[in-house]
Design brief:
This protein is an alpha/beta fold. It is built from 13 helices and 16 strands.
Amino acid sequence: MKDIYQPIFEPLVLPNSIKLKNRIVMAPMTHGASNTDGSITDTELKYYARRANGVSMVITAGTWVMSNGGLSGSAAVDRDDKIPGLNTLASVIKEHGAKAVLQIFHGGRKAAPVDGNTVCVSALPEDKEADLVPYELTEAEIIQIIHAFGEATRRAIEAGFDGVEIHGANGCLLQQFFSPYTNRRTDRFGGSFEKRSTFPLQLIEEIQRVARQHAKEPFIIGYRISPEEPETPGVTMADTLEFIEILVSKGLDYLHISLNDFWSVPRRGIDDSRSRLEIIQERVGHKVPVIGVGNIRTPQNAVKALQSGVPIIALGREIIMEPDWIEKIAQGVEGEIKTTLSVKDQEKLIIPDSLWKFIIDIPDWFPLERDGSSII
């Protein structure tokens, strides 16, 4: 291994004393390979097994905590009968040397409709033609969802996962509550900044309570957040900086910032030309480890990102294209890291059909090779 890449391989100890063997984790990515009832398939087991070598931690695709919060093809953690399959998934990841973290979520208005309905913090559809108007959750139903996240955490513990990541990003239900764009409520869960923060903060407290009760050894609790929204009024960088101060005061083990580009800058709310991740790292990085993600393609990109002060880097598309990303750097053959996909790669790389279709349908997300005279 070249000395320049040594920062990638430095271990890191999380606040709860769990040690990560290096600074690279597998980002949570939707793959659509679970059964229709949310149970784990052999396909996704093989997909994760192929990618758990090398990285220090695998964060699974979002796993729904209630049937009205799921996505088609996503895994579920809504009932105890899901525990055996989840146990197999956790074991597969851990057997290959990575910590196993189950991302848990409720999609809110983004979820697949149940009986023709979706739910949301407020009766506001997405900004797409013919979108369903979601049912506004009652206060009692909100409490049920908080309880469901706690039960999901218990099941993750019983299934042998090393932790959970609370999905508060990408427009899912937690972000719908925090956003002034989607949250139009006038009760204790909506209105002011403090009231819009109530749901995610109570949810964190419930998950921590369950972990204290059921986990017999240190258990990771992380939180994923999208730092800004394009809508007005929406979440601004100023909102996020205030919110993350509260989040880290809860004693989280990491804060995962969901971005398409690691170096993207704020769009509004503060006057700062630095990247969002550099700003967040300066604000709370001394209190909690920050995970950065977004367009980190090469080992050189990863080193530069780590030099910003952000201590952990999540890789998504890169780990799909090159499951041996870490090993090839360690072996000094980083020049062999695969950076494109061809039609011949699906079987070799164990990419589920649903994920492969997404790659083909949206080629801007993946560099695709020419195959003869055609481009896949």
